Every structure is written in structure tokens, then in C-alpha cells.
Amino acid sequence: MSTQSQHPAAVPRAAADPAQEVLRLTSLVEARGAELSSLQQELRDFKTRYAATVGSRLAELAELERAIKEAEARTLGVEHGEADEDEDARADARPPRAVKSSLKNLFWSVAKLFHPDHAADESEARRRHAIMAEASRAYRDGDVESLGALLDDAELRLYCATPRPTEDGAEIDLAARVVSLKEELLTVEFGIKRVRQDRLYRLKLEADRAAASGRDTLAEEAARLERKLAKTRNRLAHLS
Asked: Which terminal CB of the chain, N or C, has fewer other CB atoms within 10 Å?
């Protein structure tokens, strides 16, 4: 006679021992925290290299282009301030869903969902503060993509609304520690997610992949900018 084995999913799972759960979560928080620190350091190192290799050249190029604009305005007999007004007028004629307007709308939509004033307790308020700090950074940097990601991330809404259990008995201290560790782990996971979504971190990953095949993409970009800078300097010299 054949017998049917019970599906593993149908077997009730025993409740985790609070002491063992504390040990498990502590180990996990330490491991993920170390990973977050490593990712943050990698991003800081790449940002430093990017600023020195590419950022300084981009800044110089922007300054040269501004000087060219002023020189062209003088050549045409137009005051630079008037030229700026003309540009502002063109900007005002842009469609209503311009980038600046979109940024503001996205930021306020995120704030409506995640503002700390909506928190049920201090723990939730801290989680909401972390999200709003990222939203403020994205708004300041003009990062529409990150604001949109915050708004569309259903996991973040759960992250903010994680309920605190109400328990009685001798295990209340351990249970509270489990809750605290879970909240700490959520914060660390949120930090890891934000680093991996950072535009420069994604650029770093692309640079790492290129480096594996012997290419230095930042050096290549710097060389491209140097060629553009040389042309821009010559153009400004002819206008001066």
C-alpha cells in the first residue's frame, strides 16, 4: 500500500526560541552591517576617484561654456543678464511636467507617504527619518529616478509599518530584543539597497566590469573630456 508523504509546507513550523533568535539576528546584523560598511567605503573611494578624474574636468568645462556664453553675448551686443532673461523665458515656456516640477511633485508624494509625523512610535519615526533623508538627498541632487523608486517601493511601506508585538510573561526582554534587532536589520538592509541604487555606485560596477577586461573607463572619459576641453578653450580664445 502506497503512502503519501506530507508536503513540507503543510508541516507547522515550531516557534523560534527567543534566545536562539537573538543569536541568529545578532549574527545577521553584524554580517550585513559589515557588508554595508564595505559598500559605503567602496562608494566613497570611487566618488573620490571620480571627482579627481572626471568631476574636475566637468567643472572646468562648465566654466568654459559659461565664459563662451558671455563672450557671445558681448559679441552680439547683448548684456549677459539679458541673455539669462531670454533663457529664463524659454525655460518658463517648457511643458508643465518639466524636470524641476516633477522633482517637487515626487518629493511631496514621498513625504506624504513617509514623513516621520505619521509614525506610530519612535522606532517607526527613525525608519521614516532615514527614508526622508534619502528623499531630501535625491531632491537636492535632481535625482528623479531615486525619488520615483522610493515612491514605488512597496517594501519600504512595510518597512515603515512593521508592527511591534505585545507580549506578556518572563520572555518580554528577549522578545523586545528580537524586535529591536529586526528593526536594526531592516535599517541596514535599507542602507545596502540605497547604496546599490546610487547612480555613482552603478557607474562603479560598470567600471569594475570594464577593468576586468583591461579597460579604465574613468581614464577613457577623462581623455574624452580633455579633447572636448581643448576644443572649448580654442573656441573661447577665438571669441576673446
From this structure: N
